Amino acid sequence: MPGDDIGTFEAGWRFNQPEGEVLVKHGNALPLLQPSRRAYFIFLFSIDKNVEEGLYTIGFDLNTRKEYYTGADHGNYSCEVLGAMLCIARKTTRVK
User: Is 26 inside any structural domain?
Assistant: First the structure.
């Protein structure tokens, strides 16, 4: 997509624009976003090779403040976000 170089492997926000193009905003601060758009945060992490095989849940919370485009502050907002599932498994040979 124009403006997005996923090959850089950097954490940050990705969000769709009206024409479907994806733009990147590095860091953890999301700019004002219209309700009709979607935003995705790309996380990068490394896994300790000593972690046991199994299925793990990575929990997330959302803590932010509500602000109108006019700049009016409408207080804080917090909620739980569906956790990500991570599976640690032994690598096997692929069957063609």
Answer: yes
Half-sphere exposure of 73 (CA within 13 A, CB side): 4
Let me know if residue 65 belongs to a domain.
yes
In a domain, 1, yes or no: no
* Cα 86 off chain centre by: 15
Q: What's the number of domains the chain is made of? A: 1
Going from the C-alpha of 26 to that of each of 12, 37, 94, the distances in angstroms are: 4, 18, 36
Q: How would you classify the pairing of strands 12-16 and 22-26?
A: antiparallel
pTM (predicted TM-score): 0.42
pLDDT band at 35 (very low <50, low <70, confident <90, very high): low
